[in-house]
Known about the structure:
The chain has 305 residues and is of the alpha/beta class. The chain folds into two domains: 8-173, P-loop containing nucleotide triphosphate hydrolases (Rossmann fold), CATH 3.40.50.300; 193-296, K homology (KH) domain (GMP Synthetase, Chain A, domain 3). The protein has nine helices and nine strands. It has helices at 22-30, 73-86, 105-115, 136-146, 165-173, 193-208, 245-249, 254-271, 291-296; strands spanning 8-15, 48-53, 57-63, 91-97, 121-126, 153-156, 218-226, 230-239, 274-283. The strands form two sheets. It has a six-stranded mixed sheet, sandwiched between helices. The two termini are 35 Å apart. The relative contact order is 0.14.
Amino acid sequence: MEVKEGFRSGFAGFIGRPNVGKSTLMNTILGWKLSIVSPKPQTTRYVIRGVKTTEDYQLIMVDLPGIHKPFHKLGEIMTKTALKYAKDMDVNVMIVDASTRKPGKGDIYIAEYLQSLSVPRVLVVNKIDLVDRNEVDDIVSAFVEGLPAEFGDVVAVSALKGWNIDALEKTLAKYLPEGPLFFPPEMGTDVDLAIRISDIIREKILYLTHEEVPHSTAVIIDKLEDKGDIVVIYATIYVEKDSQKPIIIGKGGRRIKEIGTQARQELELILGKKVYLELWVKVKEDWRGKLGVLTDLGFTLPKES
């Protein structure tokens, strides 16, 4: 692809509290599913980058972990990572949940932090499908007036329904500086395949288990081999307590079989070929609170800049 004069390219950080719809919004703009989504908060643990390329711009969306008060080392890593990445964006997109009707303490904390950065800001009021259309303007005003930050643009959307997404995309594009392609135009993400696979497996756990168990799991890919006509994957699901292991496995192994079946079906669609997926469940006691174990599992605290 030959870029024309005036072509824009850059990075937009999607930032907000857990469960405001950051991942759904990025997936909707991309037109395909990259980030896993679930009704449970703190679904995104890694920094996920999705790339949307048009004739006029290349928008690199950075889906950051939800910012929250951490209760363990993993939460601290996720929050510090999100805050650090926000410093290096061309534009930060603060996403809030319209159904809450006004900013909460978490929203205010994020807005204060973004205001301290010399990075342009856009406010996205998401989930307007959950409120009466006649109330949207008042809800948007409540966020604009209640957040301690100045925003260059404010856009109300429904990521789930696809409402007003084109307008948002055009708004974000104008904040991108003129520049070259950072990624080939056909490339939709630079996320490592093993991370995408582990996230898909974890997404199925999030949907098929309840209470604290989903947040107590980590998925590590032990083996990933493309044999031409089939992709062979061995993965381990780690939990924190012995009592959680049978919950993942289920009676007669039914739940882990269902987790594997749903993950395999989605992976076959993504990879375009047959997948052999084998899952194991192991216990790593209190893994979310131990930095050494987290490092082994691929989670590291960002370096101070």
